[in-house]
TrEMBL record:
Residues 6-63 form the HTH lysR-type domain. Belongs to the LysR transcriptional regulatory family. It holds the Pfam family HTH_1. It comes from Oleiphilus messinensis. InterPro entries: LysR_HTH_N, LysR_subst-bd, WH-like_DNA-bd_sf, WH_DNA-bd_sf. The lineage of its organism: Bacteria, Pseudomonadati, Pseudomonadota, Gammaproteobacteria, Oceanospirillales. One of its GO terms (molecular function) is transcription cis-regulatory region binding. CDD domains: PBP2_YofA_SoxR_like. The keyword Transcription applies. This is Transcriptional regulator.
Amino acid sequence: MEKFAMDLTDLLVFSKVAEFGGVSRAAEQLHRVPSNVTARIQKLERELGQELFVRDKNRLYISPAGEQLREYAKQILALAQEAVDQLNQPYPRGKLRLGTMEAVAATRLADVLMAYHRQYPEVTLEVHTDPTGVLIEQVIRGDLDLALVADPVADERLRQQPVFQESLVIVSENPHPDISTPLDLGPSPTLLGFSSRCAYRTRLTHWLGESRMAARVVEINSYHAMLNCVTAGMGVGIVPEILLQSVPFAAGLKKHALPARWRDTTTCLIWRKDAEKPSMDAFKTLIAEFANLGADVVDI
């Protein structure tokens, strides 16, 4: 049998004829002329290669094949209606895919996520961590609905909501001399940080570049591991100052202030302009309650 795309209208007409046992009463319910209902049934029978009704004088009796289709038709029509209801439902539900930098996940998100889950239990929240550059690409591609990133670059496809203001600090092992300029790192410093897509690492390398210094970079994909390496004297890193409040071995670390140009950074919630839904709007509203910045939404 040749494949065909099943028409939901045909299934609806078939279901009504089966329910009322005749074309005329089904036509009244569907606000159609009887000839249109008959044509729909005949079309469906041709496509399926099965008689769906047994015709006896002026009455139709559903056939064994029709009984089998009737059960499927109920399920298909119910699922189609559910899809329409979901798409037109203003209340948050369904899946929400959130991306975030690891530092934000470790310091800012716990209370936000708990509150969101409590208020919107019908939303399935998925959380992914990646560096800023990767997260921006995932939002643009549609792989993520929302993402918390640092200092997003201009892109006409995106909108942003500034949420957290952070202060970045350089961290070294405790015995390290004070660091005020890149020269204080010595002639051949080692930087510990995330991938080159990390906005914080980019700031650190640009700060070094002001003094025309090059550094060896060791990539580590976990702040916990990175800070352990810093305490061991393997190099220096850059982190939001708030992150150090939750580190159990903070006594082995020494923090160094950066100039304001490199120190102050803004974490923004970003999303595509053309891909908004109730669960996203609810998250934007909720995170503004936890933010230390205003809740203004702007184009990037």
